[in-house]
Amino acid sequence: MKILVVGSGGREHAICSAFARSSRTEKLVCANGNAGIAEMAECVNIKPENINGLADFARANDIGLTFVGGEVPLALGITDEFEKRGLNIVGVCAAAARLEASKAFAKDFMHRHNIPTAKFHTANSKAEAVEILESGEFGDETAPVVVKADGLAAGKGVVVAANRTKALAAIDELDEIAGAEAASTIVLEECLFGREVSLILFSDGENFALMPPTRDHKRIGEGDTGPNTGGMGTITDANLLSEAQTQDILDNIIKPTLRGCRDEGFPLRGILFLGLMMTESEPKLLEYNVRFGDPETQSILVRLETDFVDICEAILAGQLDRVAIKWRPGNSACVILAAEGYPYHPRKGDVIYGLDKAGALENVQIFHAGTSKNEAGEFVTSGGRVLGVTAVGETLNRALSQAYEAVEEISWNGMQYRRDIGK
Questions:
Q1: By residue range, what is the domain housing residue 55?
Q2: Model's pTM, two decimal places?
Q3: Looking at the domain assignment, is residue 166 inside a domain?
Q4: In angstroms, rounded to a whole number, what is the distance separating the alpha carbons of residues 262 and 302?
């Protein structure tokens, strides 16, 4: 089978790696990929947003399966276009993609289907958002408030404001942070307290299968300080959720979500990502994503033992319940290495040293996110998040120590990373 992966980041490198392990993969293609992905797949210069170009390519090149990495092509309707042409593709339809593409739609969906989440209000302008805040709806002037851009903002459209003054500043600056289109509608939420956990699952619309629970570290600085990023590192750890908590999430969040999607006419076939807050009273849903997370994917798929092609075919056939999905025991960890200036103005073009030595370490994989090659054939930085150094181990401490051992072998001018992933 010829397989096409759509995307260009660390997530897509991990997806390509999972497909490359399959004996059923005849040829692997990525659009548009990066320098690391090019080591295992043919990279074609078609941007993920060019859904017609991708469909034309898939038809012309006899692609048997396409897998979509990121949210933007899903929101643009790539799955609908491929299915219209009779092409096999794993990814949710445009209607289901609204669960991520519009936070206002997602919150209203949660409300309609009685899914536990934070109290919220939607504002259609900055002035309306300010009015809602000053009404005292979310508490007095000292109360923390979450300010969210409604649209897609590459993980940077959420501000957790410590008080009303900072929330007002966030409203004022949201269009600069997230982009004017994404911030044209603003969602205000009460600030929930507890432990954050991410739970991702495969779904064929009816049946679903859970992946190992993960925890992301969003802020740029150690101790969860500084601005939010797309993610600075993840761990997988079964101990993040007890059996009772998992059952609660299944009964009150996952099953109502999938049932609600079916009832509203857009069965969710593909990947569903739940951002959860484990509060004292119950698990509450912070947000939906409708694709693999980045860098959650890097730490999850390194543990996948079942053939990834078999899973994808089961999703397309509506037979996910017939596949026993197996995961490598133990834990995994991914540490993101970022460029100087990330998350605002990352510097590009710095030569990366030590990749071969780091990648040769036992149980370590290095996934490229923002890399390219210079005229001398050297890997150089070309984005904010540059590499995802990932390791597996029998215990979380072992996985972390192996990941950080590999990190120590890598360097470039201005490289930054968190030293407290998994702590």
A1: 2-93
A2: 0.96
A3: yes
A4: 31
